[in-house]
Design goal:
This protein is about 40% helix and about 10% strand. The chain contains 12 helices and 10 strands. It starts with a helix and ends in a 16-residue tail after the last helix. Bound molecules: flavin mononucleotide. One of its GO terms (molecular function) is oxidoreductase activity. It comes from bioreactor metagenome. Belongs to the FMN-dependent alpha-hydroxy acid dehydrogenase family.
Length: about 325
């Protein structure tokens, strides 16, 4: 299967829930939640895409970098690329059932592992959704990271410990889902967490703890102070709060405060290896990819996910060579024009 075939199959299977646009920028699907878009005006999604597009790169070719290193260590894991699979849940409602929840999580977790990296899985009002992720992770010898909704702290700890028993390499909470009505309506309250709550979760769990959905430098610092292992600078693909800035706009301010103190992951509108390099130059240690991997999963299962990841890695390698960047662990901010 090639990339073009994969996209054609995906487009048919999405049945309009994702249009598989030539440029995945949040315009055609704006407001489509449920669906694949950003909430409300869709600005959060569009701003992430546009912010990245606004950065330019310095082309450099008088140097000795001909074999850039993409391998990296993230949360103690040896990865072939600084690119991870983002958690996506609610396949039945968001993708018109293009795949079952179980098929989707398996495609992401297995496809990421095939490409030498790691994928995340989601959580939702139906208990099976979380367990579909855990089952996919178990089948891949623990190579997966479940992201739990910001439920009551003891429930988070219970689910995180279930992940640890399954051998998961880390777990997280998508703290920006703090106002998710479908959780509350299903009698499973979610909400914001205090620094003390984060400390309590960290103290009562055994595997690395990720907080996904941080957009403010001061809150990144609170996470670091609470002993959290990693943050994901993310606006949830523009699906939590309307009118949020692009993640590439806030990332340098967050990095200024916590780079080196906590692992910084980031996502939102990353569509090419050039975009990955930009995010690394702006302060991320690694990035997460959402919708492009959904297209891979729906179009070609695990193989499709691995194909999209390897395409991104190839583009990143080219961009590193053409900016004189030797190693993803040391991307200079001078890469940005
Ligand atoms: C349909 C859909 C469902 C999502 N479900 C979850 C989820 O269950 N948990 C979570 O942490 N993030 C979820 N996200 C957000 C993604 O993990 C990620 O932050 C975002 O999609 C990244 O932006 P990108 O799609 O532009 O790459 C979802 C995103 C989409 C599009």
């Amino acid at each position: 299967m090639d990339y073009k075939e994969l996209r054609a199959i995906a487009k048919e299977k999405f049945a309009g829930s994702c249009r598989v646009c030539p440029v995945c920028n949040g315009v055609a699907c704006s407001g489509e939640v449920p669906g694949m878009g950003g909430v409300g005006s869709g600005a959060g999604f569009k701003n992430s895409f546009e912010a990245l597009a606004g950065y330019r790169l310095n082309l450099r070719t008088v140097h000795a970098v001909s074999q850039p290193t993409l391998n990296c260590q993230i949360l103690g894991l040896d990865l072939a690329m600084p690119i991870l699979g983002a958690p996506i849940g609610g396949i039945s409602i968001n993708m018109k059932g293009a795949l079952t929840e179980g098929e989707y999580t398996k495609a992401i977790v297995t496809g990421c592992r095939q490409a030498g990296t790691i994928g995340m899985t989601g959580d939702g009002p139906k208990a099976e959704w979380y367990m579909d992720g855990i089952n996919a992770i178990t089948a891949e010898a623990g190579y997966g990271i479940p992201i739990i909704k910001p439920r009551q702290t003891d429930k988070i700890i219970e689910l995180a410990n279930k992940a640890a028993e399954a051998g998961a390499k880390a777990f997280g909470i998508d703290i920006d889902a703090a106002a998710l009505v479908n959780m509350t309506n299903a009698g499973q309250p979610v909400g914001p967490k205090t620094q003390a709550d984060l400390e309590y979760i960290k103290k009562n769990t055994t595997i690395p703890f990720i907080v996904k959905g941080i957009m403010m430098p001061d809150e990144a610092a609170l996470c670091a102070a609470a002993g959290v292992d990693a943050i994901v600078v993310s606006n949830h693909g523009g699906r939590a709060l309307d009118a949020t800035p692009g993640t590439a706009e806030v990332l340098p301010h967050i990095a200024e405060l916590v780079k080196g103190k906590i692992t910084i992951l980031a996502d939102g509108g990353i569509r090419s290896g050039v975009d990955v390099l930009k995010m690394l130059a702006l302060g991320a240690d690694a990035v997460l990819i959402g919708r492009p991997l959904a297209i891979g999963a729906v179009g070609g299962g695990a193989e499709g996910v691995a194909l999209v990841l390897n395409k991104l890695a190839g583009e990143l390698r080219t961009a590193m060579l053409l900016t004189g960047t030797a190693d993803v662990a040391a991307v200079s901010e001078d890469v940005i024009w």
